[in-house]
Amino acid sequence: MNARVSLTTEGDVMAIALAGTWQVTEPRPSWTGLLGTQSPARVRPRVDEVDKWDSSLLLFLFEVQQWCRSTGAYCEMDALPEKIRTLLGQLVASHETSVPFDRSENFITTVGLATQEVMGKVRAIFHFVGECVLAAQQVVRNPQKFRWRDCLDEMQQCGAMALPIVSLVSLLVGVTLAYTGAMALRQYGGDIYVADLIGLSMVREMGALMTAVVLSGRTGAAFAATLGNMKANEEIDALETLGIPAVQFLVLPRLIALGVMMPLLALYANALGIIGGIIVAYGLLGIPPAAFWVEMLTIVDLSDIASGVIKAIAFGLIVGLSGCLRGLQAERSAAGVGRAATSAVVTSILLIIIADAIFAVVFNALGI
Amino acid sequence: MADPISTSATATAGPAIEVSRLTCGYHAKVVLKDISFTVARGEIFFIIGGSGCGKSTLLRHLVGLNQPTAGNVNFFGQSFTNADTAARRGLLKTFGMLFQSGALWSSLTLRKNVALPLEEYTALSPREIDEIATLKLAQVGLSGFEDYYPAEISGGMKKRAGLARALALDPAIVFFDEPSAGLDPVTSRKLDELILQVRETFGTTIVVVSHELASIFDIADRVIMLDRGEQGIIASGAPRELARTSRDPRVTEFLHRGDLLPQ
Questions:
Q1: I want to staple B24 with a disulfide (CB 3.0 to 4.6 A). Which of A135, A367, B61, B176 is the partner?
Q2: Which residue positions in chain A have pLDDT lower than 70?
Q3: Which residue among B99, B104, B120 sits closest to A237, beta carbon to beta carbon?
Q4: Is A237's CB within 8 Å of B117's CB?
Q5: Which of A44, A37, A38 is nearest to A61 (CA)?
Q6: A161 to chain B, minimum CA–CA distance in Å?
Q7: What is the pLDDT of residue A245?
């Protein structure tokens, strides 16, 4: 039987007889709908004939009570069972105390807070770099304390295991550059200069940059996720209570691994990019590989290779620092670990681009 | 530098831990205000209270994971809060901590987990370190699991391995953060017995954060009860004594919950 309500008026008192089954999953009568134009001075709800009830009944009674309050009518609740009156009391109390919390800030405060946050983040990066330098000093003084085995494991993970993806990306970058260059150079009969274009751009710029971007997505995110998870599991706290700095134990082996493997990977990427260029030059422009090589050597010298390697070392450290910093800053939750990984990739790519621009200016000034 | 354990810690009498006027909190939020208490040597001391009262916060401040806003924590008469880096490192050796989740380093085997503090703080040979790690794991009933990784063992075993690691340097104090959390009553009881055994064998001072009544009445020598509203200690003493004599409804309600108090 559905929820039913019958209203009977005796003098100025309206008796509200509730009956049937009141379930929140079923429709229930509306108090204002039942009342129509009537306006009793007193109402007296009764639930004697109710078979089964849940929050649905409470909501109806609450509606009655609220109507009485707004119209000044008297609501007689004495006839209701004690437990319904208690629940209704809780409903009224929670309704009165639940004030929506306004979290909005005015424009000036928002700008101020955002500025403070950015300054805090920059300070955290400098602080972290300082900690890494101090930890590196400790390692130089006391190399047997360094976790060489972890470092070698990380080298394998971020170096050898990254070879397939670095190979593919570098080869395709070489192919793309060669195609783009060939189209322009062919118009002027300078086909052979595609070798200079590929050689110089891969060795000075694209080899290190593309490897860094690949590793920031692959290794930087993995560092952040691993360290973030360790933080969530209190593993970092356990290190701290033993007086073992997390930077020395966890960060330094990863940083050194990336600092060593990144230039090697960049050199490998250079080679693959040039091979990609040779393939296109031979297939599209008919330039023999030997001619490509000889022409390339007229413009690419050791200083170009060195500038690429220096960039690669810096990019490697940036990827490692960003990944580890974001991992150590992660909130202690699954979502926090995810955010740390995303933030690590964004931070490292941003810093890589900034560093690349600085290198361009510095190398230009130094005439390298 | 002299080892604090050999100079001040064992040479003098007095409490193992002395907390004076400690104010704890995170950022601007104060959780506990102006609290003071002492823990005697060899005592099993429980920090109890309802959820959110600041038990774990207090523990994190005691072991130095968070810096207190005000006040001081002394271990064996030596200030830990205001210690310089070298003194602090010396004091860190005097205590071990068992974290709620065990906090074992997931990339290392149980043996390596226990060995790490020894590698960090001792000049023992790798073979000796290995032997001590095996012994510590045997003490907590994990013989045969030395080369397992944390992911390969159960929650109760992780806690025991965490305890073995906390005991690696034979510390004078061991802190436990909710040791019974997530454990069945039988495993929880076994962990309590292990705590008693550690105290009996080594005379270790034990500080436990818990709201597990069975453990409190079974093994605690003394408790302090924290309260969220008061932001401090509302009762201290032996648990059975407190349950019988306290007139504070918050204390009696907490300690009589579930009728676990032996009649």
A1: B61
A2: 1, 97-103
A3: B99
A4: no
A5: A44
A6: 18
A7: 87
